[in-house]
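Ticket #4471: structure export looks truncated?
Reporter: QA, pipeline team
Priority: medium

Steps to reproduce: submit the single chain below to the structure queue and open the exported record.
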Amino acid sequence: MTDTAHSLGDSRTLWELIDRRARLTPGRTVLIQDERRLTFGELREACERVAAGLYARGVRPGTVVAWQLPTRIETVLLTGALARLGAVQSPVIPFYRDREVGFALGACAAGFFAVPGVWRGFDHTAMAGRIGARGVFDAYRDLPDGDPSTLPPPPADGTAVRWIYWTSGTTSDPKGVLHTDRSLIAGGSCLAHALRLTPDDVGSIAFPFAHIGGADYLVMLLLYGFPAVLFETFALPEALGTYRRHQVTTAGGSTAFYSMLLAEQRRQPGEPVVPTLRLLAGGGAPKPPELYHAVVREMGVQLTHGYGMTEAPMITMGSPDDRPEDLATTEGRPPEGMEIRIVDGEVRLRGEAVCRGYLDPGQTAAAFDADGFLITGDLGHLTGSGHLVLTGRRKDVIIRKGENISAREIEDLLHELPGVGEAAVIGLPDAERGERVCAVVEQPDGARPLTLHEVAAHLRSAGLAVHKIPEQLEVVDSLPRNDTLRKVLKYKLRERFTGADTA
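Actual output as written to the record:
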């Protein structure tokens, strides 16, 4: 990390980081979207105006403001404005629906809710009305604007909880994960250091900015002073022209992202799909070693993969100067300040980038051990060189395209469907998604054979988010169970259906 980045990484709050970068390189571009560009100086100025507009509407330090917005410049402006005010912001992934959004807003007691109006055919404003959200405003049609001279002093305490992110965990309802400005700055600093980025790079944000990776990526831009291209929706090959036009040098996301780019490369072997691209980086889902080797061999770029979660967005990360065998088979090394302890094969964490806990105090108490280490539920070991190898998860969570999906939530809804006797939902290895969602069901005697289309229609009507709907259905005579509590043995289902074609 450069001396400048090290210095900026000492910022106490996100707003202080925005302000210091704007003073250092006000004319350098930070955000690019379609034909729009925003410099670091313009970012600070616009965020202050939005903050003043929010202040006039009643948003104060500590006010909880939830927002469910796609990856757009206005989203970053709202984030910066809330950071300027010292409000508590609660980002919600854009494709969550009534069930998840209603729970999140109620649990965090949000006083305001920013939505994108109608986005990709779904009316978020109407949903906000159905769930009784307070202080609803369309951030794309009515982003507040005001006079910055009316603002109170910016926040100075970077250790106060100012972020509530949501993760499905192992229960039906999402869990509210508590972060501070300092924990997010620590995560972004570690990521930037591992990737060896420079001010000459051009990045890209092709994933939901509401994901905790959005804030971490913003921190990276502020530390190193380089720009990123924003994608409101991401699809290939449509996005390739944007990558080429803006000469993107580093891109990333989850395992699915690597696979998509590799598929495009295979359509034009020998000719780089993005000539300026030098580095792919990401995490959030398992990475098969063969995928690493194929990307390096066929695309001619480096691939570094890491390990993170909503509770600790940057745990380990592969570095471009790591050995190929480490990049292919491990999740990288922890940065300075991240302690990893392996207890009975389970990964535990302690460091500034780790969350403060959960909204539910009971969940917090259960998540940390007596020494203050976060109990991840992931299984793994450290190599002699300090690289982390993950071998599985104790948590019953499916990670599809970097997003956590609760199996129990889907199972509970499946049990409401006529024709389902018992149900188990599992994640199966998938080269594109990391894991795909598979529903395995028993049917009562005499029931009409169930179809995947019927299952999907039922779950949609129940308000389940689209990305959680199973892509595979398997009907079995009986689910495998143990001999004591008759608990379903999901590992047997994974063994049986791994490699099976999507039904």
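Status: closed, not a bug. The export was complete when the record was re-opened. Leaving a note from the reviewer for reference: The chain has a mean pLDDT of 93.
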